[in-house]
Amino acid sequence: MPHMPVFRHCAFVRTVAVCLLLFCAVSISARAAVAGPSLEELLKKADAHYSRRIDPRETDQAFAVLKQADLAYPGTSSVLWRLARISHWKATRFPKNDKKNRLEWFEVGKAYAERATQANPNDADAFYWLAALIGEIGSARGILQSLFMVGPMKQALDQALAIDPNHASAHYVMSELYRQVPGPPISIGNRQKAVAEARLAVKLAPGDSSHQLSLARALVAVREYSEARQVFNHILTMPLDPEDPEGTKEDQEAARQELAAIAGK
After folding, report:
1. Is the pLDDT of residue 18 over 60?
2. Fewer CB within 10 Å: N-end or C-end of the chain?
3. Measuring CA to CA, which residue among 181, 179, 165 is closest to residue 213?
4. 3-state secondary structure at position 147
5. Backbone phi and psi for residue 120, each to the nearest 5 degrees, phi listed first
6. CA distances (Å), 183 to each of 180, 187, 190, 191, 235, in order?
């Protein structure tokens, strides 16, 4: 049997090696295409849409991207609490007297938040959004009809703050809880604690008008009218939140009305 010359043998080996490398490169590219975008890419895209949520089309895009992420990366708390957050946003786009649609979306959000806490028991945002949505459902149904929800809401807030003591929004919601529910023996309401929690929320996120409004209302509840007036007046000078200008305007209108209500006190 004739032997292949050495130089021809080497050329043949090189050709096979190049073909194998090309095949591997094509295979890797194909797998990457099938795998789709990474979790980080999807979250970044969803957050970009959410930052422009004043446009309902952007809200829908953010929701669609997060649903895609939930399918591609099931059981991921960072995806699930974002779905809870956007469900909350969708709910609050309906008028307050449209309880049916608001409750529907609050319940959807609560289900996502529950999944988020189960997926990662160390995610403060997951517990925060669970507490916030429980609170919204309670407010929509009526405080006295929803006192049974106070315990689970407080527990979720306690868990969020145990994970992240500097979670400004959790302190804000805790303040609202203490201020709005009845005190003992009916429930856990405590006006002094409401002031303390609101002060923490403002200290940690002073640029959030809802935190400032919560502090002003808590101060009114303990009859600290002079400081409450200062906070109400400060709210009126705050710049609009570029991501939620209507939210700032609503807080400023509430501050204006409540400032008038304490005139002379």
Report:
1. no
2. N
3. 179
4. helix
5. -145, 95
6. 9, 5, 6, 9, 28
